[in-house]
């Protein structure tokens, strides 16, 4: 297996380093398999055949493909007209096998993750790690103690092979292929992602992480993640995302399903830093049983367009859901994010805190749905949307929807839009702080309560990424 690193001029290298650190890439001529551009029934069959899947999965893929072909493009959100489905590679397999040692990872793949500091994070703060490169997970690890306790942390492909009945019981039960056009696309061509099962009463004290890397031009990444947290168990799962700075567009259309059983707790954190050519169109949903708790922590930076609304179905009495979201939109970007809270059972509570920062003409939108069913008496929901505009060209939108089917509920919604004030800047600059640093301090304070929800090492990295995004925001 041989890769060739793409050459750039010194000026381009400096641009990549200064503006977008993960912007490097490697050629794909050494890949095990690269599908021809475009999607067809034959491409779907080929993916399933290469993965040696059971018949039920192939049938599901083909149904989803037909639904994708027959579904119109959504027109209610950001502009998606530039997505060229016939130019996308839907399956790129960089290596023949998944390994559990960094020494066995192909050199250029290993260099990619080392430059992204993924092994360093694994050694410092993680109980287990999966690393996905284009369409396949190429590396996986899990602490020996967790294995002994019965924790299962595999790629989705491994999970299907080793636990076919368990996967069949839960796969596509929360997010059907009929949910939306891009959920159908994912179900048709999915590859990679994580399968996580935490047994009853087990607390995974350190985070588990999967790192997703798009390496190739005109690539599609369609990972599928399924998490089952059994009764009384606890886990924190983190995903990170980057892509090179190609001029052509890439497509990331993932699906995540999380099942939180009675008295269990799951925190799912996303730290997204896609390059600004990626269309990031993701469906994430959880089902929370009695006294269970689900926390989505979502940091959205980079991408040309993001459409993502992690949700929870509060199905058991006393279930809790919390969403903490931060989006940063710069020039040419539209971050369309939010959450969906569906209350089905009594005494359920949900909280959504959404913060957005817009600069350079960027657009940030909050889009949310709160639905309280007739049996969800004595339920509560709070939504807080705070937007910070750094200039007169940027924009913030809010699209809340509330559907309430009983009178014994409490709902609160508040939204604020503010600009970086001249008085704030004057106060800080009068104490010897330059304008760029002053703006960074204001932005850091704006998102501080969300960043504090991250483990320390990730909070430091998140603040660093925000600082990098703020460079050049003056003038």
Describe it.
- A hairpin with a 2-residue loop joins strand 3 (128-133) and strand 4.
- Strands 5, 6, 8, 9, 11, 12, 14, 16, 17, 19, 21 and 23 form a 12-stranded mixed β-sheet that branches. A 10-stranded mixed β-sheet has the order 4-3-7-10-13-15-18-20-22-24.
- It has 2 domains: 10-308, no CATH class; 431-475, no CATH class.
- It contains 12 helices and 24 strands.
- It is globular and about 65 Å long.
- By secondary structure, the protein is of the alpha/beta class.
- Helix content is 25%, strand content 36%.
Quick recap:
This protein has 475 residues and is of the alpha/beta class. Helix content is 25%, strand content 36%. The protein has two domains: 299 residues, no CATH class; 45 residues, no CATH class.
């Amino acid at each position: 297996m041989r890769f060739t690193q793409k050459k750039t001029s010194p000026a381009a290298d400096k641009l990549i380093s200064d503006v977008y650190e993960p912007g490097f890439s490697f050629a794909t001529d050494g890949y095990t398999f690269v599908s021809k551009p475009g999607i067809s029934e034959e491409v779907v069959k080929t993916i399933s055949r290469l993965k040696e899947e059971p018949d039920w999965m192939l049938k599901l893929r083909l149904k989803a493909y037909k639904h994708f072909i027959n579904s119109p493009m959504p027109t209610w959100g950001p502009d998606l007209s530039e997505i060229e489905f016939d130019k996308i590679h839907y399956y790129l397999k960089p290596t023949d096998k998944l390994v559990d040692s960094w020494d066995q990872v192909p050199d250029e793949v290993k260099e990619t993750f080392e430059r992204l500091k993924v092994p360093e994070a694994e050694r410092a703060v993680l109980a287990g790690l999966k690393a996905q490169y284009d369409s396949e997970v190429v590396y996986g690890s899990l602490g020996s103690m967790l294995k002994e306790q019965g924790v299962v942390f595999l790629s989705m492909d491994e999970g299907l092979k080793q636990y076919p009945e368990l996967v069949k019981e839960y796969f596509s039960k929360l997010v059907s292929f009929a949910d939306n056009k891009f959920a159908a696309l994912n179900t048709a061509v999915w590859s990679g992602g994580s399968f996580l099962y935490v047994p009853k009463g087990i607390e995974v004290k350190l985070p588990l992480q999967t790192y997703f890397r798009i390496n190739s031009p005109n690539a599609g990444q369609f990972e599928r993640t399924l998490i089952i947290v059994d009764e009384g168990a606890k886990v924190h799962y983190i995903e990170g995302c980057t892509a090179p700075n190609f001029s052509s567009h890439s497509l990331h259309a993932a699906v995540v399903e999380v099942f939180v059983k009675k008295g269990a707790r799951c925190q799912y954190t996303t730290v997204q830093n896609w390059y600004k050519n990626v269309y990031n169109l993701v469906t994430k949903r959880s089902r929370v049983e009695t006294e269970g708790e689900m926390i989505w922590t979502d940091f959205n930076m980079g991408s040309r367009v993001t459409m993502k609304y992690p949700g929870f179905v509060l199905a058991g009495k006393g279930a809790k859901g919390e969403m903490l979201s931060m989006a940063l939109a710069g020039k040419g970007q539209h971050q369309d994010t939010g959450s969906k809270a569906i209350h089905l059972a009594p005494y359920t509570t949900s909280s959504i805190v959404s913060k957005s920062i817009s600069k350079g003409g960027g657009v940030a939108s909050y889009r949310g749905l709160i639905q309280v069913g007739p049996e969800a008496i004595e339920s509560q929901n709070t939504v807080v949307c705070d937007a910070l505009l750094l200039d007169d060209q940027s924009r913030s939108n809010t699209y809340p929807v509330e559907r309430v089917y009983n009178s014994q509920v409490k709902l609160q919604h508040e939204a604020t839009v503010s600009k970086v004030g001249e008085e704030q800047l004057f106060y800080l600059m009068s104490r010897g702080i330059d304008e760029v640093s002053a703006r960074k301090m204001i932005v850091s304070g704006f998102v501080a309560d969300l960043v504090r929800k991250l483990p320390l090492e990730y909070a430091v990295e998140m603040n660093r990424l925000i600082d990098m995004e703020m460079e050049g925001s003056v003038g």
